[in-house]
Design a protein that fits this description.
The protein is an all-alpha fold. It has a single domain, classed as Cytochrome Bc1 Complex, Chain D, domain 2. It contains 7 helices and no strands. Helix 2 crosses helix 7 (95-106) and helix 6 (69-78) packs across helix 7 (95-106). The radius of gyration is 18 Å and the shape is globular. The structure holds heme C.
Length: 117
C-alpha cells in the first residue's frame, strides 16, 4: 500500500481516540454548580447534607492545607469509598480538568461567594 493511502486512515484513527478537549475554568464552574453543590454548597463551604457526610469546607484554607492539589484532584476523579460517600468523576473529568478545578475553584472558594460561571 502506498503511504499516501494510509494517511486518511491514520487521521481518522487518531481522531477517534483523541481525548475530549480540556475544560475551561468557566466550564468547570458550571460543572461544579451542576454536580458538587449538593454536598459542597454553592460557595464551597459545605451544605447541611455535606456536613452530615463530613463534607470538607473548601473556604477553610487551614483545613485544606494538609492536602496537595494532586491529592484533591485524585479524590475528585476516584470518589470516596467506592463512590458511596462522594461520587467518582473520572469519566467526566480528565486529570487536567480535575487539577484545574482544584486550583481555580476549590482553592479560591470564599464563604458567601457563589461558585458559578
Ligand atoms: C454526595 C456528596 C458529594 C458530592 C456530590 C461531591 N462531594 Fe466532594 N466530598 C464529599 C465528602 C463527604 C468529602 C469528604 C470530606 C472530608 O474528608 O472531610 C468530599 C471531599 C472532597 C474533596 C476533598 C478531598 C479529600 O480527600 O478530602 C474535594 C476536593 C471534593 N470533595 C471535590 C468535589 C467536587 C469537585 C465535586 C463535584 C464534581 C464533589 N466533590 C462532589 C461529598 C461529595
Amino acid at each position: 500500500m502506498r503511504p499516501v493511502l494510509l494517511l486518511p486512515f491514520l487521521i481518522g484513527f487518531t481522531g477517534l481516540h483523541a481525548e475530549s478537549p480540556a475544560k475551561t475554568v468557566i466550564e468547570l464552574k458550571a460543572f461544579y454548580a451542576a454536580n458538587c453543590i449538593k454536598c459542597h454548597g454553592t460557595d464551597g463551604s459545605a451544605t447541611a447534607d455535606g456536613k452530615k457526610l463530613g463534607g470538607r469546607d473548601f473556604t477553610d484554607a487551614a483545613k485544606n492545607a494538609k492536602q496537595t492539589d494532586a491529592e484533591m484532584a485524585k479524590t475528585i476523579r476516584k470518589g470516596i469509598f467506592f463512590g458511596t460517600v462522594m461520587p467518582a468523576f473520572k469519566d467526566r473529568l480528565s486529570d487536567e480538568d480535575a487539577l484545574l478545578l482544584v486550583k481555580e475553584i476549590v482553592r479560591k472558594a470564599e464563604k458567601g461567594k457563589v461558585i458559578a460561571p
